[in-house]
Write a structure and sequence with these properties.
Blueprint (H helix, E strand, L loop, with lengths): L2 H22 L2 H14 L10 H15 L3 H21 L1
Helix pairs in contact: 1-2, 1-4, 2-3, 3-4
Length: 90
């Protein structure tokens, strides 16, 4: 696995934990994993990924600003799946 694949897979797992945390009502845990996903963005070499992956990486920050926890959970799960697919394809 390349460095980018590992980073994208790690982001996918963190976002999946965010979705599960918010869904179960564990706000503190979900927030912590969201912070981890945001930190891991810097591990991805954006010069070698497709444009849609760059766009998704930018959208992770918007999850922190959202107030509706159900919306955060849904978006985090969707982003998680997209990052997981990007890691498998690249």
């Amino acid at each position: 696995m390349s460095k980018n694949q590992i980073a994208l897979s790690s982001i996918a797992m963190d976002l999946k934990r965010v979705a599960l945390g918010y869904h179960r009502g564990s706000i503190k845990t979900a927030s912590r994993f969201l912070d981890e996903a945001i930190k891991r963005k810097s591990d991805v070499d954006t010069t070698t990924v497709k444009p849609y992956v760059k766009n998704l990486l930018q959208k992770i920050d918007s999850l922190k600003k959202e107030k509706d926890t159900n919306r955060i959970a849904e978006d985090a799960l969707m982003y998680s799946t997209l990052f997981q697919n990007a890691a498998l394809i690249s």
